[in-house]
Give the backbone structure.
Amino acid sequence: MTTTSEHSSAPATGITRWLYTTNHKDIGSMYLIFSLVMLLIGGSMALLIRSELFQPGLQLMQPEFFNQMTTLHGVIMVFGAIMPAFVGMANWLIPMMIGAPDMALPRINNWSFWLLPFAFGMVLSTLFMEGGAPNFGWTFYAPLSTTYAPPSVTFFIFSVHIMGISSVMGAVNVIATIMNMRSPGMNYMKMPMFVWTWLITAFLLLAVMPVLAGVVTMMLMDIHFGTSFFDAAGGGDPVMFQHIFWFFGHPEVYIMILPAFGIVSHIIPTFARKPLFGYHSMVIATSSIAVLSFIVWAHHMFTVGMPLVGELFFMYSTMLIAVPTGVKVFNWVATMFRGSMTFETPMLFSIAFVVLFTIGGLSGLMLAIAPADFQYHDTYFVVAHFHYVLVPGALFSIIAGVYFWIPKWTGVMYNESMGKFHFWLSFVGVNLTFFPMHFIGLAGMPRRIPDYALQFADFNMVASIGAFLFGLSQLIFVYNIIQCMRQRGCPASPQVWEGAEGLEWTVDSPAPYHTFQTPPNLDNLPSPTGHH
Amino acid sequence: METVFRHLSINIFALRLLTLMIITSSSHSEWGLNMTESVTAIGRDIHGLHMTIFYICVAIAIVVFGIMLYSIIRHRKSLGVEAKPFHESTMVEIIWTTIPLLILVAMAIPATKTLIDMYDTETSDIDIKITGYQWKWRYEYLNTDIDFFSTLTTTQDQMHGLEAKSENYLLEVDKHLVIPINKKVRFLFTAQDVIHSWWVPELAVKKDAIPGFINESWAKVEKPGIYRGQCAELCGQGHGYMPIVVEAVSEEDYQVWLITQQQAQQNANQVSELSFDELMAQGKIGYDKNCAACHQVTGMGVPPVFPALKGSAIALGDIQQHVNVVVNGKGGSAMAAFGEQLTPTELAAIITYERNAWGNDKGDSIQPAEIVSFKQAEGQ
Amino acid sequence: MNTKSHVQRKSPETRLIIKLVLFPCLMFGFGFLLIPLYDVFCDITGLNGKFDLSPSVIDAQSLIQSDTALSTQQQIESHQVILQFTAASDQQEIWKFQPAQSQLEINTGQQYKTYFTLHNPTNAVMEFTAIPSISPGLAAEFLIKTECFCFQKQVLQAGEKVEMPLVFQLRNDTPKDYKKLTLAYRIYAAPYRSTAHVR
C-alpha cells in the first residue's frame, strides 16, 4: 500500500520552517532573498567607492580602506549576489520545469543554502578584524594575498572553501535532478533552455570550484605552513597563482552568465509569442562556450610575460569563443523578429540584456586582441567590459526573471508601472555609470586606484552620479518584491503571461507547496523547440 | 504609454548611434574618449588594431541593434501583428556562424603580426632594469653606475584638498627616467615585494614586474617629450601613488644627462654639516614624500598596521635604534629599508624631523655624516 | 522478490551521485597536480625563464650527435650573444650582492666562468637562497649551468665575503634570434638553520 507522506503537505510554521526546510521552493526563496541582501550590501560598497571617486583627491577614506571596499565589493557580488541568485532560480524552477516533485537531494539542498550566510557573515566580519578586511582585490594575486596580506586572509580562505562546498553540492544536486527526474517523455532535446543552461553550468561548477579550493589551500599553506607555492624565495612562482586562479576564474564568469542566457531564452519567446529560434543551435552554442571556456584563461594575463606562442594561442581561443556567443545573440534577435511583441517589464529587461550584454561582449572582443590588450589591461576599459556583462548582463537577467516568475511564486502580479519605472531608471543609471568607463580606461586610468589624475575627473563624476541613480533605483525593485510577498497586488492566474509555455505555467499561482508529486502528462505541452 | 516608450526607445538608440559616430569621427584623444596616440611605431600599430576592431564592433552593433530596433517598432502586438512561427533554419545558423568566424580570422592576421613585432629580438642600444617597490620605481641603467629611485612628488596637502592640485597631479615624480629618442631601449622588469606593472600609454609598453623573476619589453621612441604612466597591478595601498615619468631626449642631451647623473651619484654620499632648522625643513619635505603615506602627515599613523610616530618609543628613544629602523627597515613588517633608497642627508633630516615634530620635541638631531658612519659600521 | 540485487546493486541514481561527487574531488587533486605539471612544462619549454635548479651534465654524446647530424647539412656556426648579469636582494647595501662582470660577449657552444660577490657584514651566520631568472624566458632552455650558487643555499659566516662562481655555456643550437640575454639573480637572506647545505 502506498505510505502516507512523512509530513503534512502544509509547511511548518515559525523559524524552524526555514532552518529545516527541504522544500525546493522554500530554499529557492531563501537563496533569492539572501542574494538580494548581498546585492544591497555589495552595492553600498560600490557607492562608497564611487563616492570617493566622485572627484580627484582623497575625501572619504584611506587608500587602505578603499582597497578593502573594492575587494569585498567584488567577492560579495560574484559569490554572494549573482551566483546564489541563479541557484535560487534553479531551485524554484528546475523541478517545476521538468515535472519533478523536488530536487534530487533535498537535505543537501538545505545545507547548501545555510552554508552561505555563515560564510558571508565571516567575510563581513573581517571588516572589524585587526588589519582590516581582505584588500588584495577579488582576484587575490599572490604574494600580495599571501606574504603581504592582513590576518583576515585566513578567514577569507575559510569562507571561500565554504562557498565552494555550497556551490559544488548545489551543482551535484542540479545534475542529479535533471538527469534522473525528468518526466517521462521529456528527453534532453525537449528540456526548457533554462534547464539546459543550468545543466551545463553545473558541470562547469563541478570542474572548477575545486580548483579554486585548491589554489586557496595553497595560499593557506604558504601563509601558515611554510610552503612556497607562490614565493620565489622558496622556488615557487607568483605567476603560477594566476594560471591556477584563472583556470577557475574564466569558467567562473561563464558560470555567472549561462543561466542568464537560459532566463532570457524563456522571456523573449514568451513576449514575442514565438518559439525560441534555433533551439538545437542554442544548445550546441552553450555547450561550445562551456568547453571553450577552459582554454582561454590566460587572456587575463597577457602582460605577465608569456612567450609569443602562449599569447597567440590564448588570443585565438578567446576570439573563437565570440562565435558561439554571437550565435546566441542572433538567435534571440531572430526570436523577436516577426513576433507579436508586448513590452512588459520582464521583456524590457531582457531586451536591454541583449543590447547591453552585446556591448559588453564586443568590448570583450576588443580585449581579446592581445597587442591592443597591452593598453587595455588593468584599466577602466576592463572594468567597463565586465560590468557591462555582469550588471546589464547577469543582473538584468535575474531581475527580468524575478519579474517574470514572481507572480508564479507569490500568486500576486507585481506593480507594472513601478516595474517600468524601475527599468528606465536602471537602464539610464547603468549606462551613465559604466559607459564613461570605456573612455577613462582608454585615456589611461588604471584600475583599483582611490584617486586619479585630473584628466579623468569629468567622466568619473558622471559615473558616480550614474552609480547613485542605479543603486537607489533598486529600492523600487525591493519595494515591488516586498509588496508581492505581502500579497498586495492583483492575483495572478496560473498562465500569468499570454505567451508563456512550460510546465511551471500549468500549476496554480502561487505554486502549491508540493507540485508534480505525480509526473505530468506531457502530451499537451508545447515543445520549446517549436516542433509539435 | 506605448507611444511614449516607442519614442524613447528610438531616441535612445539614436543617441547611442550618434555617440558612436562622434567617437569614430574623433580618434582625437584630446577629447578624452579614445586611446592615447603613441610615439612609437609599435604603439601606432596597436592604436591601428584598436581602431580596426572598434569599427568592426560598431558595424556589428549597428546591424544587430538596427534589426532589433526595427523589430521593436514593427513587430508589436499593439499594431495587430501576428507572430510568424518560424523557429529554426540550419542554413541561417551556418551563415551567421561562418561570417563572424571569417571576420575574426581577418582580424587575427594583423594582430598576430603586431604581436610578433612586439617580440622583436634585435639588439638594444640601452638596457634599463626597472624594479617595482611598494610604492615607487627603481631604475638601474645596466653597464653604468646609474641607479636611482623615482618617487611621487604630489603632496599630501594636495590629496586632501588643502592645496590646489598641480597640473600633473599624481603623475609627477622627483627623478624622470631619461632615455634617448630613436634608440631601442630595452626594459627589464622585476619587483622587490609584490607584483607591480609598469605602464606608459604613449610608449605602448606595459609589463608586469614579478618578484624574483625578470621580464622584458622594449621601446623605440620617435619624438622627444615627457610621457607619464602609472602602476597597473594592485600592489597595496600605494598602488595609485607610484607613477612613471619617462623623458625622451635627443641623443646629445642624453649623453649630457648620463654624465651629470654619474656625478650626482658620486656626490650623493658627500655630506656637509646642517643646522637644526635646515634638518627640520628638509626633514619635513622628505618625511611627507617618503613616510607620510603610511605614518601620515600628522605622525598619527594608522595603527596597528602603520604605527604612530608621534609619541612613539622609537622616535623618542635611543637615536641609534631609531636610525637602525629607518635605515634597515623592520623585518616582517611593511617598513622598508630606506637606507638604500635615500641619501644620508635625506635620512638624517627625516630622522631629526621625526624626533622633533608633532610635539615630540626630543631636542636632539643627527647629522648626515653620522648616518654615513652608521652604514659603514654595518658594512654598508 | 529481488532482495539480493537490491542489496548488491546501487540504484542508477546513487551511482550517478557518486560519480558527481568524485569528479570535484578529482578536480581538487587536479588543481594540485597543476604544480608539478607546470614545472615539467616550464622545464621542457623553458617558459617563464625558470631553470632546473640542479647542475646540468653536459652530455658529450649528445653534443657529438648534434654535430654529426648537421654536418650533412651545414656546421652549426657558433654565434655571439651578449649576456648581461644583474643582481638584486632585499637590502643591496648590506649584502652587496653583485656580478663581477655586468656583461659578457660570449660564443655559443663555449664554456665560461664568472663570479658573483656576496658579503655578510652582520655578526650572525646567514644563509642565502639565489633564484635565477632569464629574459627572454625561452632562452632558459639553452643556458646550461654546470656550477651555480643557485643550486644550493649558501651559508656565510659573520663578516664573510665570498666570490661565488657560475660556470655556464650557451648550447650550440641556441637560435640566432637570441642576441642579447639578461640573467638575473635575486638573493633572499635568512638566519642560518642547520638544514641548509654548507658551502
Q: What stands out?
A: The CA atoms of residues 422 and 475 of chain A lie 9 Å apart. Chain A touches chain C through 35 residues (CB under 8 Å). Chain A has a mean pLDDT of 95. The two ends of chain A are 38 Å apart (CA to CA).
